[in-house]
Write a structure and sequence with these properties.
With 168 residues, this protein is mainly beta. The protein is 13% helix and 43% strand. The relative contact order is 0.22.
Length: 168
């Protein structure tokens, strides 16, 4: 691990994340949305939004997962990322999150609620630092980590990618 990565981890107090990589919560709105004003997929009140730093190292991947909420990914530093999105009808879309718009990279990507998401850095021997803003705010009970076998049953046409970007 190079000195810059060590510095980023220490500076932003990043810790290991269950889906892969490292994270640190930056903001959590003080205001709440009451359960009765939210879609039925939420089992309680939620904050208006949350925001985190998220770091993937060169060999890390963020495995397929989905949230009950919409999420916006923001690129900050390092290698661009390949973003894999599978929607509820099984369509796979691959986007590039980065800063080189001449290479079809974008600064922000919207991930819709209940859309499967996986990520990996494009460049080897590097890192990717991004931000993730979730609304209504993130709660671990709203996170589903995809299981390889279940995802392959749902989306057999994407078996190769699912095998690379998911846990057992």
């Amino acid at each position: 691990m190079n000195e810059k990565i060590k510095y980023i981890i220490k500076k932003f107090k990043l810790k290991k994340h269950i889906e892969g990589g490292y994270y640190s919560e930056l903001f959590r709105s003080d205001e709440k949305i009451k359960k009765e004003h939210l879609p039925k997929r939420y089992n309680g009140n939620r904050t208006f939004f949350t925001s985190i730093y998220f770091l993937l190292l060169n060999k890390d991947v963020s495995v397929f997962h989905k949230l009950n909420s919409d999420e916006i990914l923001h690129f900050y530093d390092g290698s661009p990322l390949l973003i894999y999105l599978i929607d509820q009808t099984g369509n796979l879309e691959i986007k590039k999150l980065g800063r080189n718009i001449l290479k079809d990279e974008v600064y922000q990507i919207l991930v819709k609620a209940n859309q499967w998401l996986a990520m990996k850095p494009i460049r080897r021997n590097y890192y990717s630092l991004i931000g993730c803003t979730v609304s209504p705010g993130f709660e671990y009970e709203d996170l589903t980590i995809g299981k390889k076998d279940e995802l392959i049953k749902l989306y057999p046409q994407h078996k190769i990618i699912i095998n690379k970007l998911s846990h057992k």
